[in-house]
Amino acid sequence: MQNGTAYTGGGSAQDDLDGRLTVELASVVSAARRRATRDGDRQVDTAHLLHGLLESDPAVRDTFDGAPQIARLLGYLVQRSIGYGLQWHGTVEDSGAVPLVTEGGVPGWSPAAAAALDGALDRAHARYATRAGCLDLLAALVDDPESRAVEVLRRASVDPAVLSARLDGKASGQE
Questions:
Q1: Domain count, the chain
Q2: pTM for the whole thing?
Q3: Is 68 a domain residue?
Q4: Which of 21, 129, 136, 166 could form a disulfide linkage to 26, CB 3.0–4.6 angstroms apart?
Q5: Which tens digits make up the pLDDT trace of 16-30?
Q6: What is the domain range of residue 130?
């Protein structure tokens, strides 16, 4: 949550958020919401966001070590509802990076996912961009070592520290 603006729901709060995201990132957020609903998950979590980023943005895919690594990542994410990740089903992702939000939180988002989106907005602001992009969100996801997204990265043999360094090198190339 940034400046008290909730990330879900309708009306002006959603419009405000959409105005602070690139078209590509807004599409990723929508896809993550649909995936969470389709999978029967109570909340959008960081793994839903990572899945959307990998499927939607070539610049995100270019940050990884080629097609085999992307295939492993997508394999883990696809297996979420049929095996891997079943321990997450019906639970709230609380990585401990932020306090568990109980009142006035972001309805439909795990605390870690809300923190990642907030981090993406902060990253964009730090580079004087008007909108957060997909690489901003990926960097924010990687910044939380206890998130589900980072767990998926580690299981797919992606070193979050190496990925973070690559993203820091690409930060100036975004909108």
A1: 1
A2: 0.81
A3: yes
A4: 21
A5: 666 889 999 999 999
A6: 11-173
